[in-house]
Amino acid sequence: MMRYLLATAALAFAVPAAADNHELPSAEAFAATHAEAMSGAINHPSRADDRARDQYRHPAETLAFFRVAPDMKVGEYAPGGGWYTRVLGHYLGGEGKLVGLYFDPASGPFNDETQQGIRAGATGFAAKTAESTGLPAANFSAFTLDAVPEGEAGTFDRVVVIRMLHNMMRWNNADSEIKAMRGLLKPGGMLGIVQHRAPAEATAEYADGSKGYLRQDDVVGYIEALGFEFVGSSEVNANPADSADYPEGVWEMPPSLRTKRDDLKDKGESDRMTLLFRKRD
């Protein structure tokens, strides 16, 4: 997988500090248009325990950069603990639709028990999200990417992949998973990625996903090679205080603090790239 990643990285264009496609409204204009809906989502009482991380994860600014509107059908890849799920659930809770996209259980190094757990997570997503948001379970659905229900292909406006691409690289399933997500998107639909960022000068060995970090140019070239057009990048989730060179990787940074280093406790969360891609015809 990483040999393919590094080979395709040579195809990547230089990544600007921030860029918007001229066919799209600016992220700032988009945010202003949907400010009321986003404020309601961000400030909902069900997010009381989540809100402390907003200063590091910038959900409002990130979703504005991804041009996620409240009436869209949005897939969230690997919903996990539900931090972004709660934001999206309330933001899309009126006219929109949130769908949990669970990875293909047979695509990675998962034993039978783990595979069953992945399928159970998809089955229980709607009920779990309804419980954590207070919204109707009918607002939500989910499926694994090896079992896409009939009629779902080509119906999604956006798919978001939040801090998961490194795992896909480690599990050697990034190709198949990204291609499956591409199949779900409408023509011109967009893929938004937030990912821990390695320095441009980091070695390929360090930035292969095993430490949680990837190089930005590598990611852009890789996603382009899988049938996407690069729309732009944002520095909204950047953190210059993260040197991204830790022996045990990103998990030494907050909130994991695996090695309990005192010098990292107040550094915020990892430095992150925020990238937007459009599905090519």
TrEMBL record:
<keyword id="KW-0489">Methyltransferase</keyword>
<feature type="signal peptide">
    <location>
        <begin position="1"/>
        <end position="19"/>
    </location>
</feature>
<dbReference type="InterPro" id="IPR029063">
    <property type="entry name" value="SAM-dependent_MTases_sf"/>
</dbReference>
<feature type="compositionally biased region" description="Basic and acidic residues">
    <location>
        <begin position="259"/>
        <end position="272"/>
    </location>
</feature>
<dbReference type="InterPro" id="IPR016980">
    <property type="entry name" value="S-AdoMet-dep_MeTrfase_Alr7345"/>
</dbReference>
<keyword id="KW-0732">Signal</keyword>
<protein>
    <submittedName>
        <fullName>Methyltransferase</fullName>
    </submittedName>
</protein>
<dbReference type="GO" id="GO:0008168">
    <property type="term" value="F:methyltransferase activity"/>
</dbReference>
<keyword id="KW-0808">Transferase</keyword>
<feature type="region of interest" description="Disordered">
    <location>
        <begin position="239"/>
        <end position="281"/>
    </location>
</feature>
<dbReference type="GO" id="GO:0032259">
    <property type="term" value="P:methylation"/>
</dbReference>
